[in-house]
Amino acid sequence: MSRGWDWESVEGLLGLDDPGEWDLAFERGEARLGTAVTGLAFHCSLAEASPRIARAMRLPDAAQRGFAFTAAGHAARLNGELTTELYAARRAVRGHIS
To answer: How far is Cα 18 from Cα 22, in angstroms, rounded to an integer?
Structure first.
């Protein structure tokens, strides 16, 4: 556990402010990546958070994907825009929803 982030219980993950920590958790296959990417949306620049949000939008767990879309909404609200990468990720997923 790093700086109060508990990947098992999700405690502290909304405070995640280290994109590198998210990347390491992704490599480890942590289950709460969508929750944690919301923290990045709140605490990091759009440029730092965007690739991770887009990656989380493709997670296998539907609930965690949902959190990634919430993170994208927060990023848009906080920054007044989304990146081209996030628009593309949203379009790609929307095309797969029946």
So the answer is: 7
Average model confidence (pLDDT) for the chain? 90
pTM over 0.70: yes
d(CA 45, CA 34) in angstroms, rounded, equals 17
C-alpha span between 21 and 48 (Å, rounded): 12
Distances (CA, A) of 33 to 17, 21, 26, 94, 98: 13, 11, 7, 20, 25
pLDDT at 35: 94
Indicate if the alpha-carbon torsion angle 45, 46, 50, 53 is positive or negative.
positive
Give kind and range of the element (H or E) at residue 70. Answer: helix 62-79
